[in-house]
Design brief:
The complex is a heterodimer.
Chain A (H helix, E strand, L loop, with lengths): L4 H4 L2 H25 L4 E7 L1 E4 L19 E3 L2 H6 L7 E7 L13 E10 L11 E11 L7 E11 L2 E2 L14 E2 L2 E6 L6 E7 L14 E12 L1 H31 L6 H17 L4 H5 L5 H26 L14 H27 L9 H42 L5 H37 L3 E4 L2 E4 H23 L7 H9 L5 H4 L3 H21 L1
Antiparallel strand pairs in A: 1-12, 2-3, 2-4, 4-11, 5-10, 5-12, 6-7, 6-11, 8-9, 13-14
Chain B lengths: L2 H13 L24 H6 L5 H9 L1 H21 L18 H4 L3 H23 L20 H4 L4 H13 L1 H5 L5 H18 L3 E6 L9 E6 L3 H13 L2 E8 L2 E6 L13 E2 L22 E2 L9 H4 L5 E16 L5 E15 L1
Parallel strand pairs in B: 3-5
Antiparallel strand pairs in B: 1-2, 3-4, 6-8, 7-8
The chains are: A alpha+beta, B alpha+beta.
Chain lengths: 540, 351
């Protein structure tokens, strides 16, 4: 990486570039905060209790209202008096509520289920109670046509409830506090109306749905991405893709224009650019027209690749600026540090395939519902966590080493020859600069993440409502794009020294450090000086 | 509640046609024999509503069933919360629905107003969630909804609509009087306190759904508390209610605690103007049933104990054989198989 642009740039120009990037950063935040609505919204549904009077398999859908609605009951006291059995009751939910329609812009639908269980002294929830339901999901695209079946499943969930009052006769009728249950996840919203029918069949001999207490209501909460947010997000991606792509092409052209082969660090930066572009490419546009349920999984994979690439980049960047005499410049010399990243990402990938991958087949599936599944999922996550910790230990150690070497070099800087001094000063500046912006970006991410977790979704500010969560997403996404952009721009080889590079390459000194002599040095001292320098170092 | 009881109250409703009481709309609770409120004519026939409420009924026909359910809910909850007290929230066979206790500015009135406005907000919100109502969270006339609609930014919480509807329907009576009399101020305050009892006890629940289900993306929503919880909160507020009087500060009239040493009440507290009677004796004129004939607890020293409940008149004890269900087998709904157990218990009844 001979003479990066950043070293040859005057402070004034550097400030201008920094200013422009900062302006874009601010725009990214503002787009999310002011134009976009909050990223997701929720719709709460209270299941209507239908009575399956027809017992007719042909007419299997129970619609809560509209034309041809089911026979509804208000509460189960009514069912007792009419001698309706538990197996005849169908909980019916129509999404969304009238008069709204679903839209492909919602990107995904995620439903969670809550059961309202009333306390009764002689009908309490048993320990380790499990609730089993038969669910069918149907869709249609207008108000009159037949419902089309989309998925059917029998699912079991653990019912984790606590009763916060003393268990006395007086408190009968108070509700248990139950954990929310994951219910359903669909990676695309291709239809306008959805109908969910849930049955809780009782089978005493098999012990199905026995000891689950006195159920009063079933509530669902539907979460989907807001159409407005999706549009802003797509617009942003569509804008960012060409920007990163162009700088990537420019960067690679610069590298290929040099006569020497690209060094490891340059390749890694390029790979980072590719993974960023891979995230950026707005393939989601297709989700508007096509029913591609795997989009959610695909998005996860893309993000995973980028994170893995970013983490690897930091390690390699530190390693290449180590300023000791070790031969690196090769991916294999980093296996110890990159290993954990690979293992960790692989674990998360397997976990994601187990959860979202299976959901492609069965939208009601969740790995967390069974004991084995929970243990497996925890195992994957813990291994990934350990890998991440390991990685950060390595990274911190490497940064520490670099700083130690820097302080060592800095004390001996005045005694050095001009060429060596400038060379090391360049290295130190380059490292410190990246260190600074990386830390700034990471800190921003963490701070905004915490803010978005702690505070309510939006701030009222005068007449404006600032959507914090949206600002967080667009801002952070824009920030890492700018980070990659700046990296490719500032760490591209400077155009001032195409010719001289050849001499560097001819030296056969492949260590990154030796190649990183700046143009100024070569201009002043000429190749012979460099040659001597290299020989000297080799002897050391 | 027996059909006979309904019939009787229905007759009374007709009698009550011209009685003016802000909580008269609670009569809706007694109308379940009428069937659903499905056309504008029914609105005219509903007794206990003032003219502006009738207009609201006509404009929001679909919501009226929920209003009625809210009223029923409120009365049931009131009777549950006060089951062990001298005044047990019994509805009367005379006017108005809870007797004079509620027409005066008593603590009990404060509770009734609060629980009934909460009941309407609760029932309307529930109806929203089950898809019975068209407007709800996406109604643009309700504040807090972004103008772009469901597809751009989703709808606001249904509770916003429930509370707004309760405000416009329940409060309309006091508002139409111009909110100047101390009673109107008290009612408005207590109505609002009832709705606050729901709003401030909403449970926030969250779900993480980022990459691999991480908390990178987290969505939270508010879930309405069970109505029992609302009742419990309001009962606590009833026990700590503040006695207030009207004062003029500047050009506006406000309610301030009678005892200036007390902390000023907050939005969530209940306030009352007049002290309550002791509810001991049968007093039809004021609609007090008295505690004679009520069951009491011999061992308790609290208000449900025979000492206090019977107001010192003493009680008599009977041995009664009760038939109870025992060793039952339940399904989650509807199915119960029990044995019958006989048990002899001592029953104490106030003289």
């Amino acid at each position: 990486m001979a003479g990066a642009i950043i070293e040859n740039m005057s402070t004034k120009k550097l400030c201008i570039v920094g200013g422009i990037l900062l302006a874009f950063q601010v725009i990214a935040f503002l787009v999310g905060g002011l134009i976009a609505p909050s990223p997701t919204s929720t719709v709460s549904y209270l299941a209507n209790k239908c009575v399956d009077v027809r017992k007719n398999p042909k007419n299997k859908w129970h619609l809560p209202w509209g034309n041809n609605p089911c026979e509804k009951i208000r509460n189960f006291d009514e069912a007792v008096s009419r001698q309706i059995e538990a197996n005849d009751i169908v909980f019916s939910i129509h999404a969304p509520h009238p008069p709204n329609e679903m839209s492909p812009w919602f990107q995904f639908m995620l439903y969670i289920l809550q059961v309202d269980v009333a306390f009764k002294l002689d009908n309490q929830i048993k320990n380790n109670a499990e609730i089993t339901f038969n669910v069918s999901l149907g869709y249609r695209d207008d108000m009159v046509s037949e419902w089309q079946g989309m998925a059917y499943a029998e699912e079991t969930r653990k019912l984790k409830c606590v009763f916060n009052y003393p268990k006395t006769k007086d408190n009968e009728g108070s509700y248990y506090e139950c954990d929310v249950l994951p219910f359903m996840e669909i990676g695309t919203v291709a239809h306008k109306f959805y109908l969910i029918n849930i049955r809780l069949p009782v089978h005493e001999k098999k012990g199905i749905n026995v000891g689950i207490g006195d159920i009063r209501d079933i509530r669902l909460v539907g979460i989907h991405q807001n159409g407005g947010f999706t549009k802003v997000w797509f617009a942003m991606k569509t804008f960012l893709t060409p920007s990163i792509f162009i700088i990537m092409v420019w960067y690679w052209r610069r590298i290929t224009m040099m006569t020497r082969a690209p060094v490891l660090l340059e390749k890694v930066i390029f790979a980072l650019g590719i993974s960023m572009t891979f995230i950026n490419i707005p393939v989601e546009w297709f989700s508007i027209g096509f029913d591609w349920t795997w989009m959610l999984l695909f998005g996860d994979i893309r993000q995973g690749i980028f994170y893995a690439m970013l983490l690897s980049f930091w390690i390699i960047f530190c390693g290449e600026h180590m300023m000791d005499q070790n031969e690196r410049n090769h991916f294999s010399s980093y296996w110890k540090q990159v290993g954990p990243i690979v293992v960790g990402s692989f674990c998360l990938f397997v976990f994601d395939m187990c959860e979202r991958g299976v959901q492609l087949k069965n939208p009601f599936y969740s790995i967390w519902t069974t004991d084995v599944g929970t243990e497996l999922a925890m195992a994957f996550i813990i291994v990934a966590g350990i890998c991440l910790c390991l990685y950060f230990l390595f990274l911190c150690f490497m940064v520490f080493q670099v700083f130690r070497n820097i302080s060592g070099k800095q004390s001996s800087l005045p005694a050095m020859s001009k060429a060596r001094r400038l060379h090391y000063e360049g290295l130190i500046f380059r490292f410190k600069f990246l260190m600074l912006i990386t830390l700034a970006c990471a800190a921003m991410t963490v701070i905004f993440f915490i803010i978005s977790q702690v505070t309510e979704g939006h701030w009222k500010w005068g007449g404006y409502t600032v959507e914090l969560n949206s600002a967080f997403f667009t801002g952070i996404y824009g920030m890492w794009n700018l980070y990659v952009f700046a990296l490719m721009f500032l760490y591209a080889p400077s155009h001032k020294n195409y010719g001289e590079d050849q001499s560097n390459g001819d030296l056969g000194v492949s260590s990154g450090e030796e190649l990183q002599l700046t143009t100024t040095i070569t201009h002043v001292d000429g190749p012979t000086e460099v040659y001597k320098l290299a020989r000297k170092e080799a002897q050391e | 509640m027996s059909p006979r009881y309904f019939l009787r109250s229905l007759l009374l409703l007709i009698l009550a046609a011209f009685s003016a009481n802000a909580s008269n709309w609670l009569y809706l609770a007694k109308l379940s024999s009428v069937g659903s409120i499905s056309d504008e004519e029914t609105c005219e026939k509903l007794k206990g509503l003032i003219q502006r409420q009738v207009q609201m009924c006509k404009r929001n026909l679909e919501v009226m069933d929920s209003v009625r359910r809210g009223a029923q809910l409120a009365i049931e909850e009131c009777q549950f919360q006060f089951r062990n007290r001298r005044w047990n929230c019994s509805t009367l066979d005379s006017l108005p629905v809870f007797g004079k206790v509620v027409t005066q500015g008593t603590r009990e009135a404060a509770f009734v107003y609060a629980i009934s406005s909460a009941g309407v907000a609760f029932a309307v919100t529930r109806a929203c969630s089950s898809g019975e109502l068209d407007k709800c969270g996406c109604d643009r006339t309700v504040h807090g909804v972004s103008p772009q609609g469901f597809q751009w930014s989703g709808c606001s919480d249904n509770i916003a609509y429930g509370v707004a509807f309760s405000q416009s329907f329940v409060d309309v009576r006091e508002r139409s009087k111009g909110a100047s009399s101390s009673r109107a101020l008290m009612n408005l305050h207590n109505n609002e306190a009832g709705r606050k009892a729901i709003l401030n006890n909403m449970r926030v629940e969250c779900k993480c759904h980022g990459v691999s289900g991480s908390c990178e993306v987290k969505t939270c929503w508010k879930a309405m508390p069970p109505f029992r919880k609302v009742g419990n909160v309001l009962k606590e507020k009833f026990d700590g209610a503040t006695e207030v009087e009207q004062k003029k500060i500047g050009s506006t009239k406000v309610l301030v605690p009678k005892n200036s040493q007390f902390k000023p009440h907050t939005d969530e507290d209940l306030v009352y103007l007049d002290s309550s009677p002791d509810f001991c004796d049968h007093d039809l004129k004021n609609g007090v049933l008295g505690t004679s004939g009520r069951h009491c607890n011999k061992t308790s020293k609290a208000i449900d104990g025979c000492e206090l409940m019977c107001c010192g008149r003493g009680f008599h004890t009977d041995e009664v054989e009760v038939v109870e269900r025992c060793s039952c087998k339940f399904h989650w709904c509807c199915f119960v198989k029990c044995k019958q157990c006989h048990r002899v218990v001592e029953m104490h009844t106030c003289r």
